[in-house]
Amino acid sequence: MVESSVITVGIPVYNEGKYLASTIESVLNQSLTNFELIITDNCSTDNSYQIAMTYSEKDSRIKVYRHNENMGIPFNFRFSLLKATTKYFVWLGAHDLFTPDYLKNTVEYLEMNENVLMVYPNAEWIDNENKFISKLEEDIETIGLLKKDALKKVLNNNDSGIAVHGLYRTSILNTIPFGMDEMLMFFIVAIHGEIVKLNFVGILFRVIRVETVEERLKRYKDIKILNKSTVNFTIARIKKHLFYTWKVSKMNFFDKVSVSYSVIKKFMIIELWIQYKKSINKGSIKTVKMGK
Predict the structure, then answer these.
(1) Among 15, 42, 92, 275, which has the minimal tally of Cβ within 10 Å of its Cβ?
(2) Residue 58 and residue 217: Cα distance in Å, rounded?
(3) Residues 105-125 pLDDT 10s
(4) In this structure, are residues 270 and 183 in contact, taking their beta carbons and an 8 Å threshold?
(5) Per-residue pLDDT reduced to its tens digit, 233-246
(6) Could you tell me if 119 and 199 are in contact, meaning their C-beta atoms sit under 8 angstroms apart?
(7) Helix/strand/coil percentages in the chain, nearest 5
(8) What's the pTM value of the predicted model, to 2 decimals?
(9) CB neighbours of 292 closer than 8 A, spacing ≥ 6?
């Protein structure tokens, strides 16, 4: 039996008034009700804060915080985590939805498997009217793998964003440095323990925008995800991953070299892809950006 309030759901918000009520309702309608919901508003200019406050006044499990200025997405995500005092933590996008048994299924697995640090489900894409678009799966499960193979798998298979919204042991998230990207987050989790994929649909991701790569990079700079050139950002990511790779005690020298090669190859491929897409994304050529 799970104790009261061992789970925190963090919803970082910025101008999500169109969908926020539905997102909150998907948490309140969970079959497992022993949770707290922390909503952190990043100085929205729409009615997001008012919507959140309306719900918090009706339900004592909901806490709402508002920044006096837009602090950027990384800060707002981290802020919701720092306000949590529970054993488990999960982020939910302010325009996305949990299915009713998400918390129940994930927390029960973690309660029974102490070596597992994070579990995540399958997901589906939905449109603005909650209609099904397509299935979405991601395999970064590390159970039974040697450490070097686990780290390579996390590097190479993390591409859909599902696992960002998995259920984590709060203690492992608190060891990750501020300003990390999601790949480094999974990398550090995989170093310290196991990641497991559960076979049920737990999250409904909403498609909210279409943009070119140039438009996306500009938006990332505006919301403080990217504060330097992509080349410098890529070099910084490589350095951080290599730093943690060479700290792993459960790998020998040759395993560390192997993982290091995979790190450099992965991020150089990403950078080359960005530069290629920038070169062809002119005029009406678009890339689809799914809800995040």
Answers:
(1) 275
(2) 39
(3) 999 999 999 999 999 999 999
(4) no
(5) 899 899 999 999 99
(6) no
(7) 40, 20, 35
(8) 0.89
(9) 93, 161
